[in-house]
Design goal:
The complex is a heterodimer of chains A (386) and B (311). Chain A has 386 residues and is an alpha/beta fold. Chain A is built from 13 helices and 14 strands. In chain A, strand 13 and strand 14 form a beta hairpin. The longest helix of chain A is centred in the N-terminal third of the chain and has 24 residues. In chain B, the strands form 2 sheets. A two-stranded antiparallel sheet of chain B has the order 1-4. The chains are: A alpha/beta (386), B mainly alpha (311).
């Protein structure tokens, strides 16, 4: 094509795009996104995560958040955005096929999810290749943003933010002068415990005992003996509930009464440790406390789902709204929506300010600390970590 | 010094479990030449039997146990009976349906080994399907407290129960094998099953009853496990079983007293290793001890009478 022809075509097409974007911006209600790319009513958004299987409750929360946000948007904007479900059962082995299916579906504009870190790892490159934007609401592994996938956005804080917040809590609120840090030798536990170790080092709080336990073992007596001899003010465990609960029980039975903070918000911790040993223990979760979110949001959630919003509910609602705000701004192609999310998304969500850094992580993450009181988790506080 | 004593006490408690598992491995190997990997799962089934009995008796996790010490001991004894019955049935079932048909056909050792692994996985996954993969807590029936102290280091009641029970049980099984007529049959079968058969010993019966003894050992290990660690899951036998098999080899596979010695040595070695180098080195230390010992003494700590591997 000659340069003259290109110039001749460029002027009218530029005018046309200008008209389209004006049309998109100008209408507050009505079929706002119909001016460019796809008609608003032919848009589909997807949720990918565990909808059946042992972790289905995580997926249910993610899907509920997306559904609530889309229903509110459709009603307000006289639109009919539809939701597609991609049930991975939380299994990284099943997620890639679903991602392939998703990227081939032309009317699918963005995905909330995948739900778990393993799935994100297994599918990040596929979504990037298909140019399909993903906004993650519950996968927290710090290393997920390392690959630099352009379609990766995460509204929930990473484990790195979690570790920083948990260390901050131990230092500022508990006032520890020396700590013991234990990890479960696995990716999740070790990563978060290493984060706490380096935060402690930065704050010049000595780590007097540092242990890596075998998550499958039953007997942690050697770790208990070491911690007892080191006499720390607090024991941090980068663990899942099973080994965290067993360690907590054995620490208390072994006469170690130091403050205990575990990285796993799971009631299994209390039943494994036993209510007596678990009493007073803390757990941290890199998310906003559901009971401390905006009351309008909680009311809307309870009205729609008949139950209180659970962990990651606010994050899934925010992830969906990030996408919907992009659509509202006239971005109805995958490419433009992804660019908008990366560069322009900046709004006050339920879980906090939603603005993504260059690595795709939310700029200010949150970590909530819970305390076991009478055998139940009670919210202590939510800390913002940037 | 305090830390040293603490490590010895904890090492003996952990080692007692390894010893009980090792006894099960040793008994099965002695009469049938099988490394019965599914023995781990027999113990696991025993722990679930304990859990179900406790639940059936209305003792639940979370609710404080209202009964006195005697009631608690009664509940634990009932759990023990259930675990032993389940252990015997499971062990006998394994021999009857998995190993005996292979014996009859003169299957080689690899086939038997693979069958044992298969049986182990079948039981694991079966229980995972039935109960789920989460850890299940066992209620605390007796409060854990200091019974006496050694050089200022507290020795808890539960550790004493575990070490004493395991030791007494191992000696009792050893006496049964060395002092009774039936024990003589076991020993005869162990030395040469064909000749023992010609002498009128019912080999299948001897092997079956020996597997039952291994099942009893599994039941005892199971009840002590839920009493001491207060939890179980479908996979609990895996880690414990590997250590138990190591202890059995360490002590001299086939020897009951050796199994006890192997278990206790392994428990101590692990805990001292973890204390010196950190918990992440625990398993490395345990297996280095095993390799070094076998290099110096191939028949294991106490194994001496027979070292040949039966085909």
């Amino acid at each position: 094509m000659s340069s003259k022809v290109i110039k001749a075509l460029a002027v009218p097409s530029a005018l046309a795009s200008l008209a389209m974007s004006l049309a998109a911006c100008g209408t507050d209600s009505g079929n706002s996104a119909s001016a460019s790319g796809m008609d608003c009513s032919s848009i589909h958004l997807g949720y990918s995560g565990p909808l059946t299987g042992p972790s289905a409750s995580y997926g249910a929360t993610g899907l509920d958040g997306l559904t609530l946000a889309v229903e509110q948007y459709n009603k307000k904007n006289n639109c009919d955005i539809k939701i597609d479900k991609f049930d991975s059962q939380g299994d990284p082995a099943q997620a890639p096929a679903l991602a392939q299916q998703a990227i081939k579906q032309k009317n699918l504009l963005a995905i909330v999810g995948p739900g778990f870190s393993g799935e994100v790892k297994a599918t990040g490159a596929i979504y990037e290749a298909g140019g399909l934007p993903t906004v993650i609401s519950s996968a927290t592994s710090a290393s997920l943003s390392d690959a630099g996938w352009k379609t990766f956005h995460r509204v929930v804080g990473s484990d790195a933010a979690g570790a920083a917040g948990e260390a901050q809590f131990l230092i500022d609120t508990v006032g520890v002068k020396k700590v013991a840090v234990v990890d479960n030798s696995q990716e999740y536990g070790r990563g978060i415990a290493d984060g706490v170790r380096s935060a402690m080092k930065k704050a010049s709080v000595p780590v007097v005992a540092s242990e890596s336990i075998d998550a499958a073992a039953s007997d942690y007596s050697s770790t208990v003996t070491k911690i007892k001899a080191a006499n720390p003010d607090a024991v941090y465990c980068g663990c899942l509930y099973a080994e965290g609960g067993r360690l907590l029980k054995q620490l208390r039975d072994g006469g170690v009464n130091a403050v205990f903070l575990d990285s796993s918000y799971d009631p299994g911790l209390i039943s494994t440790a036993g209510a007596a040993a678990a009493e007073g223990a803390y757990v941290g979760e890199p998310a906003t406390a559901p009971d401390q979110t905006n009351s309008d949001f909680r009311t809307a959630w309870e009205k729609r789902w008949g139950k209180e919003p659970g962990m990651f509910a606010a994050e899934s609602y925010d992830a969906a709204n990030a996408i919907l705000k992009g659509i509202k701004a006239g971005n109805t192609t995958r490419q433009s929506l992804n660019d908008w999310l990366t560069k322009d998304a900046d709004f006050k969500g339920i879980s906090g300010q939603i603005k993504f850094g260059p690595d795709g992580n939310v700029k200010v993450g949150h970590v909530t600390i819970f305390k076991v009181v009478d055998g139940q988790f009670q919210t202590v506080k939510t800390l913002a970590v940037s | 010094m305090d830390t040293f004593t603490r490590i010895v006490i904890d090492g003996l408690a952990a080692g007692s479990f390894y010893a009980l598992v090792a006894v099960g491995y040793s008994l099965a190997f002695r009469v049938s030449g099988v490394i019965n990997f599914a023995h781990n799962e027999v113990i696991m089934l025993g722990t679930f039997a304990c859990l179900l009995v406790a639940q059936a008796l209305g003792v639940h996790v979370g609710a404080a146990f209202g009964g006195g010490t005697m009631t608690a001991v009664g509940v634990l004894l009932l759990c023990a009976v259930a675990a032993i019955v389940v252990g015997c049935v499971a062990a006998l079932g394994l021999d009857r349906f998995a190993y005996r048909p292979l014996r009859k056909r003169g299957a080689n050792v690899i086939t038997t080994l693979i069958t044992a692994l298969g049986a182990s996985l079948l039981l694991q996954e079966g229980v995972a399907k039935w109960r789920g993969r989460d850890l299940e807590a066992f209620p605390r029936l007796i409060s854990k407290h200091e019974l006496f102290s050694i050089g200022g280091v507290a020795v808890r009641n539960d550790a004493v129960v575990v070490v004493v029970s395991a030791t007494v049980f191992c000696f009792a099984i050893n006496m049964f094998i060395t002092r009774t007529d039936f024990g003589k049959n076991i020993r005869a079968t162990a030395i040469n099953p064909d000749v023992a058969g010609l002498m009128g010993v019912d080999i299948n019966r001897v092997i079956g009853i020996t597997y039952m003894l291994a099942g009893i050992a599994a039941g005892v290990a199971a009840v002590l496990f839920v009493f001491y660690y207060e939890n179980t899951s479908y996979i609990m036998g895996f880690s414990l079983g590997i250590k138990g098999l190591t202890a059995a080899i360490l002590g001299g596979l086939g020897d009951v007293k050796g199994a006890l010695a192997g278990g206790l040595v392994l428990g101590l070695a692990e805990n001292f290793g973890a204390s010196l180098f950190g918990s992440e080195w625990k398993d490395v230390i345990a297996f280095v001890v095993l390799i070094v010992l076998l290099t110096v003494r191939a028949q294991g700590l106490l194994g001496g009478r027979r070292v040949e591997v039966r085909a």
